[in-house]
Amino acid sequence: MRSLLVISNLTAGPKQTAASMQPLPETILSGNGYHMMKASSEERAKQQIGEADAIVLNLPLNEVKQWGKALMQWKRVPLLWWCGAASAGSSAAFCEDDVLIDGILTPSMSEQEIHWALHFGAKQSFERQQWINERKQLESRLEERKWIDMAKGILCKIKNVSEAEAYDLLRKQAMNERKRMVDVATSIVKVYQLLQEQK
After folding, report:
1. Residue 181: domain span
2. pTM
3. Closest to 155 (Cα-Cα) out of 142, 140, 144, 170
4. DSSP assigned state of 22
5. 99 in the same domain as 50
């Protein structure tokens, strides 16, 4: 992991505060050998995300969630929060359990600590993506199960058969038509609903 995109919209006001005089994440990370890109707008981030191996969010936590959702639509990469004085200070009033970050980086980290934080962030991101994919598969199976159960109910009612017999009818019909069982079930339910509407 060598290319990092820093997203930051923390701007120093007219007075230089102690937080604003701290080194920027891109300065520290490039000093440790990482190729840095910087964005402060969605348009710029969208242009550069293709080259990024990870995203570093130098933002208050209340903005991290919004940015995280947008970034994940463009590319699945590890998201790390830069917990510097400015971002931590502006996050004091905001604490939420479902902030989409895979790790935290701080200005005081050594080169090895940054390396391991990025490594574990990448691992966390990979596991999160696996969980999201598994969840989608489970939701899809539940949706399929719903159509099959509705079709079984219709077959039980119309043909006056048991649920097991209705299931066998569905399975045989799917095999005969060389279709998935859920597709046959969906067709049965939709035709039945159409006929009921015409009564």
Report:
1. 138-198
2. 0.68
3. 170
4. S
5. yes
